[in-house]
Structures are given as structure tokens and as C-alpha cells.
């Protein structure tokens, strides 16, 4: 059997009982290591799961799926994913490949950022299409995702922005030279995402367009959702560009305009004080 198992959002203990039982039955256990991270390292997971973990990077999962699935028709193999298994399309491709090879599979679900964002008080059924915000470079500053934010705002729905993760990335020079030298991991913060959004707003004004989002648009920043030191901050997009929510992983929500009174009351628990650039806790700012 090929098991695809969600690990949840926090630490080693967020795996479900069903998932843990499956892991301990497996002869090989892979840990997907590029779409998200937990608050603990590989060694902590190995100790709790009582299994050695094989790190699987993007290249291996996307190009060498058969290596992961090898012998899964005669023994149990697990593929562990932070959050829920279907948080990334790559994982659907693994299931399709297993099916083509005649390998039976089983998916064991868990919490993901897609539903855990409800912790800030915004109602999940009022979210529109999710977008990803990538790190800009000097020569590449994509704005196309902003059209989906605009559409969500027009529909009165919130936008969950998933922020970029750079793990096992190569510099252009090393890539050209074929050198397997990788850059240090980078994780986009809420304030970096907000700064890029503010630049897009300015660019649209320069082009004579009416931006769907302004400096005063209400946003919510979230950090390390599911962990004990989770932080939430609610404020304007301008405030989000300076707020410090600490270490990764971060997410940003752009609200859809009109909020239900209950949503407003919940967000008031996390409001950034005037003239303050730092959040103090998860329960109040």
C-alpha cells in the first residue's frame, strides 16, 4: 500500500492516530520537504514516529516518482506531507502515477492552512480563490495574481495569500554551471508580501487604473498557525508592511470588504494598536 499522510500544521504530535499507525507499519517513509515546514526538524519527527525519514525534494517528487513508489505493491510505503496531502498539485500527480502502476493507495487527511485560517475569525465559506505571492527579483515582478484578488473583492470574498518558500534553490550562476550548490532557505514574511502588494497598488495608479486594494484595506497576518507561538495581526495593508510576526511560516488574508459583525468582533481581538509595528500575542495585539 502507498500511504499519503497529512502531518498537520504544528509539530510531530499533530499527526492523526490513524496516520501514525500507518507510518509505523511502513518499510520506507518519505518526508516532502519543499511546500511547507513544521516547527520541528526531521530528527524530532523520527524519534516520535519511530521511523527513519527520507527527505524528498521537489526534483525527486516531480521527476523520480517511480523511486518513491518502488515496491509499494508488495510492502507499505508512506509519503508525509505537512498540512493536508492535497495542499499541492504535485501530490495528486503521485496518486495518479501509483494508479497507473497498479499500486493501491490510501490518503489520511489532516488540518491545513486552507481551513486553519478560520482561527482569525473570518468565516471560511466567505473565502474566494486562493493566490500565491512569490519573491520578486530585480528583473521579475509578477502582478498577474492581483487580478484574482480584484475578482474576490468584487465578489465580497476574502483572499488567502500563500507566501513563497524557497528551499533547495540554486542561484542562476550555479544553475547554468550545473553546480549542485543551493541557496539558504527563505520564507516570505507578511511584511514582505504587503510591501510587494503596496508596490502593485502604486503601479496600477501610475497606469491610471483604480486598484481593488488600497493602503487602508483591512488585512490579517498569520504566523505559525497551529503552533503554540501562533500569532495573528489585523490591520491595514500599510500596517502589514511593518508588522513583525516572527519566524515562518506566514500567511496573509486580504478581506473582501463587507464583514459580518461576528467577523469584525473576532478581528478586534487581534487589532494592531495605533503607532505600533509589532504584535504582542495571539490573543490580542
Automatic annotation (TrEMBL):
Alphabetical list of InterPro entries matching this protein: 4pyrrol_Mease (IPR000878), 4pyrrol_Methylase_sf (IPR035996), 4pyrrole_Mease_sub1 (IPR014777), 4pyrrole_Mease_sub2 (IPR014776), Dphthn_synthase (IPR004551)
Catalytic activity: 2-[(3S)-amino-3-carboxypropyl]-L-histidyl-[translation elongation factor 2] + 4 S-adenosyl-L-methionine = diphthine methyl ester-[translation elongation factor 2] + 4 S-adenosyl-L-homocysteine + 3 H(+)
Molecular function GO labels: diphthine methyl ester synthase activity
Top-tier EC class: transferase
Pathway: Protein modification; peptidyl-diphthamide biosynthesis
Gene Ontology terms describing biological process: methylation; protein histidyl modification to diphthamide
Record key words, sorted: Methyltransferase, S-adenosyl-L-methionine, Transferase
Domain (Tetrapyrrole methylase) ranges: 1-239
Superkingdom of origin organism: Eukaryota
Its EC number(s): 2.1.1.314
SUPFAM superfamilies: Tetrapyrrole methylase
Ligand binding (S-adenosyl-L-methionine): 9, 84, 87, 112-113, 163, 225, 250
One Pfam family linked to the record: TP_methylase
HAMAP family xref list: Diphthine_synth (MF_01084)
Summary of the function given for this chain in its UniProt record: S-adenosyl-L-methionine-dependent methyltransferase that catalyzes four methylations of the modified target histidine residue in translation elongation factor 2 (EF-2), to form an intermediate called diphthine methyl ester. The four successive methylation reactions represent the second step of diphthamide biosynthesis.
UniProt xrefs under PANTHER family: DIPHTHINE METHYL ESTER SYNTHASE, DIPHTHINE SYNTHASE
Family label: Belongs to the diphthine synthase family.
Name of the protein described by the UniProt record: diphthine methyl ester synthase
